[in-house]
Input
Amino acid sequence: MHIHAYEKLWLAASILLILLLIGSVTYGAVGPGVAMVADSEQPIDAGGLDEDERFSEPRVEQVGENEYAAYVVAYQFGFEPSPIVVPEDSTVTFYVTSRDVIHGFEVVGTNANTMVVPGEVSEITVEIDGSQEYGLLCNEYCGAGHHAMEGKVNVVSQEEFEERNSGGDDA
Amino acid sequence: MGQNQAAHASTDDVSGDEEFDPIGTLTLIGIYFVILLLAWVYVYYIEFLGRDLVVVG
Amino acid sequence: MSEALETERSFVDKFPEEARVVRAALLSSFLALVLGAIFGIIQTLHRTDVVRIIPSTDYYTLLTAHGVFLAISFTTFFLVGLFTWAVTRSLDRPLVNIRITWTWYTIMAVGMTMTGVSILAGFTDAIDMSADVLFTFYAPLQAHPLFYAGLAVFIVGSWIAGVDWFRTWLAWKRDHPDERIPLQTFMVLTTMAMWYIASSAVAASVLIFLLPWSLGFIDQVSPTLTRTLFWFFGHPVVYFWLMPAYLLWYTVLPKLAGGRLFSDPLARVVFVLFLLLSTPVGIHHQYLDPGIAEGFKFISMTNTMFLLLPSLLTAFTVVASVEYGARQRGGTGLLGWLTDLPWRKPEFTGMMLAGLMFAAGGFSGMVNAGMNINYMIHNTIWVPGHFHLTVGTAVALTFMAATYWIWPQISNKPIYSRSIGLFQVVLWFIGMALMSNAMHAQGIMGVPRRTAEPEYSGFDYPAMFGGFEELNIQIAIGGTLLFVSTVLFISNLVLTMGNPKVSGLAESLPPALSGPDDAPRVLDNLGLWVGIALTLVVLAYALPLAAIINRGGLLGPGVGTYPVWVAPVLDALAGAVTPLVGEVAGSLVGVTP
Output
């Protein structure tokens, strides 16, 4: 089959481009260590969240030296806790599940973004820097009130975080 | 007419692509290639890897 | 060339029955386009807060209709019309049994009507029926059973269409035993083979899970499983949309440019690559799903990246064919030949602009394919920005452009106004450039897709690219231009249909520069390619599907059902039937209830 020399050149360039794209993604996984949401958490009973130790009381708690776990429940049409308060300069793992339908968990303007599937728990770990407030929204259509489904992720100082957690409720 | 009669016609017309070098195409697609490369590098390395809350676990 | 001596009989003169089917299919396609466009303009103005004439809760009904009518009905009806034309024309013979042809067309029309009714009923409370589940339908959001049943019927109709064309080709083959499959027919057959593979999973999802579930026969279904089965189909469907556009770019556009297809063999290779690679990639729509291992996602990514290859090759072959035409017309210079092309013809300019826009869409597609960069843009409005460039322009604009060329040949009526046609295709391009560009920018800011009101009370978007409000205005303007363009297209066609018939509208297609005889015979071995395609699909999907079923069971871990259709029909039926039964019983026994 005759292929013109220029087209052969383009074919080679195209394959190189494809390898570059795959290579970039692989670099992202290996260098900065970007990990995908996956099946690390066991399936749970979406109807039985009240009995689940983590999700019956959605909260943020310390699990190690500068390590925190945020147990988040998405529902029609909001997130619990609201706002999600985490301390600055820490590592936070979000465990997110749904009580009802499929939702999205997107921290606006960042790379923290995951599907939230009832019966499954999405686990994502991120590094938190300095104090700031992030918007949180649901980006997977979940019913008539989808556009109203929002929350906050607030990064506060260590002191403020401890104050909130030892004082009152999870809000 | 079906392609078949046409196929016979093309054999007396010496495979056109021997005489025709699509240099304009090569140029245009070369420009496209460069744009793709630059755009990818920007979007991946600067925009994506540069933003907050990269998922590392 | 022998083509010059060809008879002046147009397609409709030679194949009047087939031409009628083609016209019917195209008109069904444009009906869907009209409805989709009306909903599109309402959506655009609603989302950008320019004017909100419906309650935001109804937005999702509109969005479901927009997606289903445009992404399923408009595209598929055009495809079946185009393919009927292409098979008949390239084999130079009628279809084997025109009654079967009308049967599949009717089945498709019935199916789409069923689904359409179930969606539109969501606008009124008078009918207890709705399907606000969007075009990408999976559990636990549930639609009325009519929605799923209609789609199943529609898909079966399309399967019969494929059988119709295969049979016609086999009949031709008996009379032409050693000949290569004519290119257009080859493209039709490979596309349909891909479609059978791709649609099998969504048909299974609908028939085994979603339909029985919506009828109340099973209690729950697995969200992850139905998602995975949907996306098994949901990626290759975009190639089902694209391959007819490629057929036009490969076999018609060179002629419009005054040239010839640069390489028939390469065109065959491209279509074989689509048959092989379109389906084993669906998991790239699920990069951020819990419940699916990263390894499966990575495999899907590499397959997807290689799926870029046939499109990149197409870019070269098509542009080279056009360049050949330009130089034949006297064009010279490295790029100067670009001016020696028939830019006044809407069919030419429309296809060229569509191809140009597709090049941009290819880039955002590369980003979408990148597994980890998906975190940045998943479910943001970047994604609609991408697909409005691809299906919304590369496909839709090519279809509109092709109509200007094909309609006269299938009806013997000249186009009412070619200048309006030219204006319309350029307007489409401008409108889409504005709208899609702003959508991509907003997506990077984190603005979500599929929402009636993207402004939130608790926070503002990052200030980038001129800002959220500025970009909203661009989206609104772009969308409005697109709507105007659609109105012009449809009006032009309607006025064309009112024209008197004339003769002399026949058009021929020249042979390729490098013809089918230069293509290795193995390319025509459809059985081989289907076998490989199935193997790749099994490799990509067997383990993930087994893992999903193993994890959560066939019907999913404990999940409820969320009917998005109001009030069970059964309650209403029970309410109607009970007094009736009482009356009948009373009259039999002589007692009034």
Notes: Residues 93 and 125 of chain A are 4 Å apart (CA to CA).
